[in-house]
Design a protein that fits this description.
Pfam families: FAA_hydrolase (PF01557), Rv2993c-like_N (PF10370). Keywords: Hydrolase, Metal-binding. This is Fumarylacetoacetate hydrolase family protein. This protein has 4 helices and 20 strands. By secondary structure, it is mainly beta. The protein has 2 domains: about 55 residues, SH3 type barrels (Roll), CATH 2.30.30.370; about 200 residues, Fumarylacetoacetate hydrolase, domain 2. Strands 1, 2, 3, 4, 5, 6, 7, 8, 11, 12, 14 and 17 form a 12-stranded mixed sheet that branches. A 5-stranded mixed sheet has the order 9-20-19-15-16, with no helix packed on it. It has a 3-stranded antiparallel sheet with strand order 13-10-18. A hairpin with a 2-residue loop joins β15 and β16. The longest helix has 9 residues.
Length: about 260
């Protein structure tokens, strides 16, 4: 099931995406009553996807990122794979949706793309045992952990490098019926392939990450866990179109602009 969050005529709602580009008339949204965390009902209202504006599929209270979870990415930045997961936060104000612009921050001269599989939490959870991890996940979406690399290198904390406004594109929707263990993940910039990997290359699995994170904190419905990026990260410039595609989910596309 693909669950999208959208805006139409100033109203915001969730809907189930049905069909695809090959479907007669194109994909449609079957609008749901309420929010997708827990039980919900279909309203019976169906809207062509082409008539709505897709929004970030979730409004997280927090985004927990995991660094250096692909060995080749750690190596390309000159790092070893850490003994334990390296966790960091991105604020809710960093989130944007499909088609929204990534705004380059004035304090950085080297902003990079990082294509990632994002886990969307479906229920409040704390100290989750490994065998229960699947029970707390709503689904998965595409993410771009946009990073001010020069700032990351010179500042010990990653708050500014990873948390600036528009640094967390998410979308286009949440896929709930998916085995995330070995999915293809790709990033292109202006149609040119930059990153290509598989989630099966992650050093630590999604189960490992959720167990580790919830040892320390409560995750709330809608929260997001970023699972790390494969090798091939690189710079973004004004005018670029960056796209993250994940097998079984879809493609998240954003343009890059200059602030002001």
């Amino acid at each position: 099931m693909r669950i999208a969050r959208f805006s139409l005529d100033g109203n915001v709602a969730y809907g189930i995406v049905e069909g695809d580009a090959s479907t007669e008339g194109g994909p449609v949204l079957d609008v749901i009553k309420g929010i997708p965390y827990g039980d919900f009902e279909r309203s019976g209202t169906r809207i062509p996807l082409s008539q709505v504006r897709l929004l970030p599929p979730t409004l997280p209270n927090k985004i927990v990122g995991i660094g250096r979870n692909y060995a080749e990415h750690a190596a390309e930045l000159g790092h070893d794979v850490p003994d334990i997961p390296v966790a960091f936060f991105k604020p809710s104000t960093s989130v944007i949706g499909p088609g929204d612009p990534v705004v380059l921050p004035a304090f950085s001269e080297e902003v990079h793309h990082e294509a990632e599989l994002a886990v969307v939490i479906g229920r409040m959870c704390r100290e989750v045992p490994r065998e229960r991890v699947k029970d707390v996940i709503l689904g998965y979406t595409c993410a771009n952990d946009v990073t001010a690399r020069d700032v990351q290198r010179r500042e010990k904390q990653w708050a500014r490098a990873k948390g600036f406004d528009t640094s967390c594109p998410l979308g286009p929707w949440v896929e709930t019926d998916l085995d995330p263990s070995d999915l293809g993940i790709m990033c292109t910039v202006n149609g040119e392939q930059r990153q290509l990997g598989r989630t099966g290359e992650m050093v630590r699995s999604i189960e490992d990450l959720i167990v580790h994170i919830t040892e320390a904190m409560t995750l709330l419905p809608g929260d997001v866990v970023l699972t790390g990026t494969p090798a091939g990260v690189g710079p973004l410039a004004v005018g670029d179109e960056v796209a993250v595609t994940i097998e079984g989910i879809g493609t998240l596309t954003n343009k890059v602009i200059k602030r002001g």
